[in-house]
């Protein structure tokens, strides 16, 4: 090793700057150039004696003007931390972990007690706590009392030096990356300005670009509105009963109107947009779906009128509307080149109110049993009653015979 490396190996590697240099290695270079060996408070007398023995110079008293550095460690009062990352940036060996606007904490086994993180903290939530006498901090402290202490301190110094060097290498890489990005942006700017457009042409180009972007956004929104209206209409048709109630029928009419309005808006935007080749099949499929929806609505209207014993004229008008919807479906089916469906009316069985009541009771009984079984303070008596109720409900449903 060179003389500078030998001197640096004896320094505590806290990188605290109390010697007047930005790190231990710059101070080692200063000592090699003739600076005093007593300017390192963390190293104390042990480091001074080791340097004196290496350089064959007299042992000096520690320069007290540099301050004192007892065995200490940084501690963050986490409840007061605001996540500013200033202490993370100040730590020379990356011994503080955290992220922006999140709590920070010190890695105790890595902290060297340099106290460089204290001053940058804007809320003063970092304090330096002395280590207990029983705790061994291999970097600093009193004179080594055994060979194990010397080896442990040497290993600790080497570890801290590696972390400091790795941090510097990372910062250098990040700076090089930022520099490369700035150069790339500057090069792109130069290339763009080498052949500038005429101001009028540039303004027209910006207007055309903005119009195209607005048209694309409007067209995309219109397509989304059509898709959402169609999905909502289909979902309602599946969810409502057969026949739907009056309120449901009114809702279906509103949904149908919204769907048609969304389709009309989309058609207007597509007609004003530049012509784009569009396959014929999707349009035919849309007509077919619309015809099916119209047929389902006419059937529901006729069924409701028959159930409510509406006047004969109204029923005849609804029957005619149903026939027209059937013919429209046939025409849409033929246009889509799909086989014509068989339009057969299937009368569904009326809902059995008594069976529905029994199944409702069964569902409630199951829910009660499940809730009591999950409870932690449920008594055995309540659980037995709930289970008996469930068995009784199941028996009633199984034994029920429709009239």
TrEMBL record:
Q: Where is the signal peptide?
A: none
Record's keyword annotation contains 4Fe-4S: yes
Where is each 4Fe-4S ferredoxin-type domain found?
72-101, 102-131
Which superkingdom?
Bacteria
Report domain 4Fe-4S positions.
1-57
Per UniProt, the keywords (alphabetical) are: 4Fe-4S, Cell inner membrane, Cell membrane, Coiled coil, Electron transport, Iron, Iron-sulfur, Membrane, Metal-binding, Repeat, Translocase, Transport
Q: Which Pfam families match?
A: Fer4_21, FeS
List each coiled-coil range. 252-375
Q: Which residues cross the membrane?
A: none
What's the protein here called? Electron transport complex subunit RsxB
